[in-house]
């Protein structure tokens, strides 16, 4: 018998809901999500862990992280046009197939994306697909190996039109 280490069970409807690794995530059908995913070297894990413990609220924690990322730490490989285009094309590829893409911005060391996931699509599977493909292509383009993205992403489900518009405005400002 051969064991396939790449086998991942298909997620079902019962797999939706809240879950956590280090950060809380909500996976729900037809949910609009604001996701930030960052390069592996964009922030030292020790600093992330320290702020996670010290910061009194989730909102303050997220604001600290965003300010740090916006300061351009790490190698900033997404500053390269060819690497940023790999990410952009991956986001566009899944538009209207797995989600409705509303807005995105690619920063030097992280990216933001706003999308509504379609029925039977799971947030973790969408992000794994985007990050896995772009990591392989970027590493190939850069002639390197190793971790490209930080394993976990920040995601926040959109609570209404006011929240949606605030996220779009935020992405326009930082662009």
Mean pLDDT: 84
Rounded to the nearest angstrom, the distance between the terminal CA atoms is: 52 Å
Q: Helicity level, as a percent range?
A: 40-55%
How is the CATH topology named?
Answer: Alpha-Beta Plaits
Structural class: alpha+beta
The low-pLDDT segments are 1-16
Beta-sheet strand percentage?
A: 15-25%
User: What's the overall geometry?
Assistant: globular
Report on the structure:
The chain has a 4-stranded antiparallel sheet with strand order 4-5-3-6, sandwiched between helices. Strands 1-2 form a two-stranded antiparallel ribbon. The chain has helices spanning 45-54, 58-70, 81-94, 123-142, 161-174, and strands spanning 17-20, 24-27, 32-38, 99-106, 110-117, 154-157. Helix 3 (81-94) runs antiparallel to helix 4. The relative contact order is 0.21. The chain has 175 residues and is of the alpha+beta class. It has a single domain (22-174), classed as Alpha-Beta Plaits (2-Layer Sandwich), CATH 3.30.70.
Write the layout of secondary structure elements.
Elements: E1 17-20, E2 24-27, E3 32-38, H1 45-54, H2 58-70, H3 81-94, E4 99-106, E5 110-117, H4 123-142, E6 154-157, H5 161-174
Antiparallel strand pairs: 1-2, 3-5, 3-6, 4-5
Brief account:
With 175 residues, the chain is an alpha+beta fold. The chain has helices spanning 45-54, 58-70, 81-94, 123-142, 161-174, and strands at residues 17-20, 24-27, 32-38, 99-106, 110-117, 154-157.
């Amino acid at each position: 018998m051969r064991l396939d280490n790449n086998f991942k069970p298909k997620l079902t409807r019962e797999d939706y809901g809240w879950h956590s690794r280090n950060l809380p995530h909500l996976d729900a059908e037809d949910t609009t999500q604001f996701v930030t995913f960052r390069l592996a070297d964009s922030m030292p894990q020790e600093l992330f862990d320290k702020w996670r413990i010290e910061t009194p609220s989730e909102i303050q924690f997220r604001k600290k992280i965003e300010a740090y990322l916006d300061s351009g730490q790490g190698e900033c490989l997404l500053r390269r046009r060819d690497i940023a285009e790999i990410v952009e094309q991956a986001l566009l590829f899944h538009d209207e197939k797995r989600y409705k893409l509303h807005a995105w911005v690619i920063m030097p060391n992280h990216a933001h994306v706003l999308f509504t996931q379609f029925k039977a699509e799971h947030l973790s599977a969408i992000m794994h697909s985007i990050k896995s493909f772009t990591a392989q292509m970027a590493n190939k383009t850069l002639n390197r190996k190793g971790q490209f993205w930080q394993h976990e992403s920040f995601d926040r489900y959109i609570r209404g039109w006011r929240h949606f518009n605030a996220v779009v405005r935020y992405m326009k400002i930082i662009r």
